[in-house]
Each structure stands twice: as structure tokens, then as C-alpha cells.
Design goal:
alpha+beta; five-stranded antiparallel beta sheet; lectin; ILEI_FAM3C; FAM3; FAM3C protein; four-stranded antiparallel beta sheet; secreted
Length: about 230
Amino acid sequence: CFLTGAAKLVVVIAIFLLTFYVISQVFEIKMDANLGHMFARSALDAASRSTKPPRYKCGISKACPEKHFAFKMSSGAANVVGPKICVEDNVLMSGVKNNVGRGINMALVNGKTGELLDTKFFDMWGGDVAPLIEFLKTIQDGTIVLMATYDDGATKLNEEARRLIAELGSTSITNLGFRDNWVFCGGKGIKTKSPFEQHIKNNKDTNKYEGWPEVVEMEGCIPQKQD
């Protein structure tokens, strides 16, 4: 009887251990499957997070076609934040670069290569228009000209200065007034009016800032000059 009872006990223990082993194996398989699912989901989530929208040159909204230069520019904000001019992912003028100033800010770019040629700013409030006129006369054919106002870009402008800028393709320069915000991209030797120009009038009833209108921004693709 004692052996029979012991044998029964061994059988019971063996069954218990076998049952525990089977359950543990099934549990581990399920855990492995769940973990695999979790890891796969994590990988997909990470992949989706890493799939960012493409970034184009100068942060413009779409890529430029071949033989075009990407550009983006903005006027100054009141008399606090200077203008910014970017061409082909190179910031040519900005407050950070410390090469902007009150008045008309101008960057000259080689129309064939996209290379920066020069940057200048001309104070049209407390300065003299003569240096601006002389500089405009020195610009060579085939040069891309980008201009942006800061604070006030019009008070000292005279008819000759406006005519020279109009010859670069501007249509708004004749109406540019005190503290208007204006950005323009044209070229020396251009045969038509430039499509790249934005102008907001200084109007106390609609100004975003107390004495200045809102910032104007513009982006686009400049055709490369061909021989």
C-alpha cells in the first residue's frame, strides 16, 4: 500500500511538472509572439517617424527644375529684425550674418553659376541716394539682383534711382513709399518685367506692427542664364 501510494504521488508530481512545463512553453511562445509583434510595431513607428517630408534648398516648398536657382527672401520686420536673402541654400544676407541695414538691402548673384558677387545696403532714411545710384550703374549684364527693404527703403529714393531699379524688372519701385515692405528679384539686362516681386503698403489701419506693415516673403526658381 505504501509503494502504491508513493507511486501515485510520483505520478501526480510528474503530471504536475509536465503540465507546468507545457503551460510554461505555451506561455513563452505567446510571449515571444507578443514581443515580436511589439518589436515589429516599434520598428514601423520608428520608420514612420524618420520619414520626414523632403527639404528643398532654402526651405522652399518644392524643388526647382534643372538649370534654375532656388531662392527665398523676406523683408525686415519693422525696425527690429533685418531681412533675409537665401539662394541655392546659401544665406547671403541676414541679421545673423550681420550684413543687413536700414534701407534697401541688395545681393548680386552670377546668373550663370549662382555664385555670390556682392552684398550692400543703402540707408534711404538718413543716408544719401547717390551711392545707391552709382552701385546700380556698375551691375553687369547677366547678374541676378535681389533686394529687400528694412525699416524704410524709400524716403531718399529719387526718379533716377527708381528708373534704374525698374530697368532690372521691377514694377512696384515707382510706388514704393515710406516704410513700405518690399522684396524683389530681377536681373541686369532682363527683357521683361520680373515675376518675382512682393509689395505691402504702409497703412496705419492695416499695419501688423504699429508703424510698419507685416513682413513680406517670397520664394521661387530663377532661370539660369544661358549663353
